[in-house]
Amino acid sequence: MSPATTGRATTRSARRAPWSVRAGHGFVAGYVLLLIAFGVVPTCYAIYFAFTNANGQFTGIANFTDAASDFRFVPAVEHVALYLVCWLVSLAVLVVGLSLLLHRLAARGVSKALRFLYYIPGALAGAASVMVWLFLLDPSVSPVSFLLTSLGFDTFGQVVDTGNLPVLFTLIAFWTGAGGWIVVMYGALNNIPHEVIEAARIDGASAWQTARRIQIPMLRKWIVYMVILAFAGGTQLFVEPQLLTQASVGVAGRDYSLNQLSYDFAFQNNDVNTAAAISVELLLIGLVVAAVFVARSGFFDAD
């Protein structure tokens, strides 16, 4: 190629570059606008309410102390904490395990079908998925009533007893949310160079050794990312206990979670400021936990 031709090609590339940059800015601008409108502005609004009273006067941390002194606050914290332990442990262990299994089955031609089956529950909205589970958990109409009765549950009220709720909420959350993460982890596994896996196989590493020493360490950042988002979502537990409360006529309790308690303060007690204080506390907890995970895991370190 002659120097003149090369020069013309470089000039055309230089002319096209600004358009691609502008297109990228255009795509990002839409997200930024929505983030500001439905994320940043409501957050600032909640912070304002959390530190003021009904008259708009600054009250310091009074709203936070009022929330913490409520007799329902500590039980709600305990409920959410127990649920998070069940949810995060099951998510990390089962998602990674099923992703590794799916990756090994890829050579047998069943991987695509399994990925589709895993992802189907995620297509249901939160409320719709809970309604499906309400049907499944009622021994009088459930298609798995034989399993419920064999476990000693004869009525819906027995199934949704407070002691069973962390496990039930974990099952619902895993059923609706794990499929998408399994697909994500499967894609991350496909990005591991085949030469690395082949070298481990030649060295005599078993499937378990390959997973433990190569695949799981290389999935570390994806696992951390999943846990951070799952933790943030888990602290916002609301739809599941709220619908169970209505379906069980109060057996589950309308103040089971912190989000329910915040909702109760705002719409039952007409105390928006204390409700905002609980919301800000949840935000701070989520930010602190995310910062700890990112710092301890080297999330942004170059591989």
Number of strands: 0
Strand content: under 5%
| Shape verdict | globular
Q: What sequence of helices (H) and strands (E) makes up the elements?
A: HHHHHHHHHHHHHH
Tell me, rounded to a whole number, the average pLDDT.
Answer: 84
Helix content: over 70%
Largest sheet geometry: none
N-to-C terminal Cα separation, in Å?
Answer: 38 Å
Structural class: mainly alpha
Extract low-pLDDT stretches. none
- Tell me the Rg in angstroms: 25 Å
User: What count of helical segments does DSSP give?
Assistant: 14
Fold and architecture overview:
It is a single chain. The protein has 14 helices and no strands. The protein has helices at 3-50, 62-69, 73-105, 111-119, 126-137, 145-150, 156-159, 165-190, 194-202, 207-218, 220-235, 239-247, 258-267, 272-297. The longest helix has 48 residues, at 3-50. The mean pLDDT is 84. It is mostly helical. Helix 4 runs antiparallel to helix 8 and helix 11 (220-235) packs antiparallel against helix 14 (272-297). It starts with a helix and ends in a 6-residue tail after the last helix.
Please write out the topology.
Layout: H1 3-50, H2 62-69, H3 73-105, H4 111-119, H5 126-137, H6 145-150, H7 156-159, H8 165-190, H9 194-202, H10 207-218, H11 220-235, H12 239-247, H13 258-267, H14 272-297
Helix pairs in contact: 1-14, 2-14, 3-8, 3-11, 4-8, 5-12, 9-10, 11-14, 13-14
Brief write-up:
This protein is mainly alpha-helical and 303 residues long. Helices cover 75% and strands 0% of the residues. It contains 14 helices and no strands.
